[in-house]
Amino acid sequence: MIVSTINVNGIRASVKQRSPENLGMLPWFKETSADVVCLQEVRADDEQLADAVAPVLADGWHLASAAPHVRGRNGVAVLSRTPFDEVRIGCGAEEFASHGRYVEVDTAGLTVASVYFPTGEAETERQLEKERFMAAVADRMAVLLDSGRPSVLCGDWNIAHTENDIKNWRGNIKKAGFLPQERQWLTDLLATGWVDVVREAHPGVAGPYAWWSWRGKAFDNDAGWRIDYQLATPDLAARVASVHTERPAAYALRWSDHCPVTVDYA
């Protein structure tokens, strides 16, 4: 089972042809070996999303999505080559049930969730909302871990865990995404048994980053953040055969400000 995750930064923008060399996201789907693809920040309702990925669905993929409650924001989805046995929207907290931040599927003997954490903003209500969402997701992950079912949560967590996960860590110590309490929350979550499979495959090194600002020379200088995670249950993590961060070869070939993160669970 090969699983990819990508924040598309707007599904309708990501599928558009940007240049003769950059045809958008759809050719990536033609070439990917992934069996399951998790999407975040689709910024579309269910009908708009299905229309944007119509060529993918025509190739036999199956779609599950959680539309955002605010037009043009959030939205997550899972595309799978195999049918879904079950689809669950939301992580169990009533506050976030309609926010389009969490969708979970059972397919091919695996539970896969696509999750999009709030950005937050230090010392504001936005940060408190983010932390409530973090707590709700942790509660759901505890249930999944206790179930014994092989599971993986994929997505944009909007948290860089360590100094190796953000190029300019010194300049972001007091900013959302690298706050001490966010980083400790992730440390505590991993201590329960979940495995950051990308970091396990790249121990003790900077990156590999999967988000770079559109502005300036961030991409060219690889001044990025590693905020796109796949957290797997221990039994599933033990099956990892390869991890690949699909960084485009050039700025002009980007169809999102993130890039796909792909893991082969052999």
TrEMBL record:
Enzyme class: hydrolase
Domain of life: Bacteria
GO molecular function: double-stranded DNA 3'-5' DNA exonuclease activity; metal ion binding
Catalytic site positions: Y116, D156, H258
Note on cofactor: Probably binds two magnesium or manganese ions per subunit.
Protein EC: 3.1.11.2
Site (Important for catalytic activity): residue numbering on this chain: D228
Keyword Metal-binding tagged: yes
A Pfam family matched in the record: Exo_endo_phos
Cofactor(s) named in the record: Mg(2+); Mn(2+)
Residues with site note (Interaction with DNA substrate): H258
One GO BP annotation of this record: DNA repair
Residues bound to Mg(2+): N7, E41, D156, N158, D257, H258
UniProt keyword terms in alphabetical order: Hydrolase, Magnesium, Manganese, Metal-binding
Site residues (Transition state stabilizer), renumbered to this chain: N158
Domain Endonuclease/exonuclease/phosphatase: 5-258
Sequence similarity: Belongs to the DNA repair enzymes AP/ExoA family.
Name this polypeptide is given: Exodeoxyribonuclease III
Organism field: Mycolicibacterium hippocampi
